Structure formats: structure tokens, C-alpha cells
Amino acid sequence: MAEHKEESVMDKISEKFHGSSSSSSSDSDGEGKSASAAAAVKAKIYRLFGREKPVHSVLGGGKPADLFLWRNKKISGGVLAGATSIWLLFEVLEYHLLTLFCHCLILTLGTLFLWSNASAFINKAPPNIPEVKITEDLAVNVARSLRYEINRGFASLRAIGQGRDLKKFLIVIAGLWILSALGSCCNFLTLFYIVFMVLYTVPVLYEKYEDKIDAFGEKAMVELKKYYAIFDEKCLSKIPKGPSKDKKH
User: Fold this and answer.
1) Model confidence over 16-68: pLDDT tens digits?
2) Percent of the chain clearing pLDDT 70 (strictly above)
3) How far apart, in whole angstroms, are the C-alpha atoms of residue 46 and residue 214?
4) Looking at per-residue confidence, does 181 or 243 come out higher?
5) For residues 202 and 55, what is the distance between their CA atoms, to the nearest angstrom?
6) Where are the alpha helices (H) located in the chain, listed in sequence order?
7) Which of 172, 235, 212, 67 is nearest to 59 (CA)?
């Protein structure tokens, strides 16, 4: 009887152990399935322009991205106030760039000159003016980067002029026409200020409402592709294209 009781107690303990292990394994399997399902749903979410990285990474990361996304509101607000002040000086008050530069230089040099000469009489240290130099490496790197971008732009213009990519040709023509229309309405400084304000407001608003904007963008892209397919079938496909690279080689 004692042996029978011991066997029954051991059987109950083993049943409880296996039951708890099976329940924990089922819970872990359920969590794994839910995580994989969430990852699959996240992967299927449409992002504007095929974006796969966060907005901060798309803007290059670091301090410039922090500036445009208003991570530090004091610094971003200061830059915005400075840009707005410059635009008001030149556009509203009709100040000229050369005049402003000369007046600022006169004020700075006059202040430093008087401070340096008066320091001996007021028993204060003269101003510590830092020595500013442009290093050769910096100048070479800037020149190389500028040269690369200019050559890439010339190559793109050459490819468009040769008639190899009709879609890119239409995009470039539309962009240039929009720029010409904006240029006839405002000068370069106002246009630059408008671009600056767009860069300063659109990214932070998009980051805040990206789910709603991406959903609207998906619907808009579907409609645009539909109309472009109709336009391509009726018009673009009938236009003769230039020689391709393979035929030339």
C-alpha cells in the first residue's frame, strides 16, 4: 500500500510538471507567432517613397537631423528666428548684402580695436581673437565633393538629352517649369526662405503624422500609377526612343 501511494504521488507530480512545461511552451509559441505576425504586418505597411529607415536616419542623422526635427527646440527656434530676421532685413527693410556685411565688419573691427587699446587703461585682458585658417585637406575634400556632384548632374542631363529615359525627362521638365514659375513670382532670397521653411516644418509634421500621411500617399501613388499607365499606353509608347547603350556597344 505504501509503495502504491508513493507511485500515485510521483505520477501526480510528473503530470503537473509536464502540464506546466507544455503550457509554457504553448505560451512561448504563441508569443513567437504574434511577434512574427506583427513583424509581417509592419513590413507590409506602405512608406512614402519606399522609405525603410526612420525619418531621422533619412535626413542623415546627427545634429542636422536633430535641427530639422526640432529635437532641441531652443536651437531650432534660434535658427528659425535668425533666418527670418535675415529675410526681413533684405526683403522688408530692403537692406543690401554688401552694405550689411560692411557695417557688421566695421562694428566688429571697431569694437575689437577699441577694446585692445583700452585694456591697458581699464586693467582688463585684451580680447582673445582666434586664428582662423582653412586647411588644405578641407579645401581639397570640398572641391572633390563639389566636382563629383557637378559631374553626376552633367551625366544625368546628358542621359536625359539622349532620350534614354522618358519618365525622367518629363519629371525634370516639370520640375524646371515649376522653378521658373516660382522664380517669376519671387526673387532668389524669398525662394530660398520658402525652401528653408518647408525643410523646417514638413519633416517634423511628417514624423508626427507619418501613419496617416503614408496611408494617403499609398492611395495617391495607386491613382498616379493608374493614370501614368493610361498615358504611357496612349502617348508615351508611341514616341520613338533614342538608341540605348547596348545597341551602341
Assistant:
1) 444 544 444 444 455 454 545 444 444 456 666 666 777 777 777 778 788 88
2) 73
3) 6
4) 181
5) 11
6) 2-44, 55-58, 62-68, 73-87, 97-118, 136-161, 166-185, 188-208, 210-234, 245-248
7) 67
Distance CA 181, CA 175 (A): 10
Single-letter amino acid code for the residue at 194? I
Which cell numbers hold the place of 129? 581673437
Contact, 73 vs 241, CB < 8 A? no
Count other C-beta atoms under 10 Å from residue 220's C-beta.
Answer: 11
Mean pLDDT, the chain, as a whole number? 76
CA distance 48 to 221: 9
Long-range contacts of 220-225 (CB under 8 A, 24+ apart): 221/46
- Tell me the longest C-alpha to C-alpha distance in the chain: 112
Query: 70: alpha, beta or left, given left = phi > 0 and alpha = psi -120 to 50?
Result: left
* Location of C-alpha cell 557637378: 150
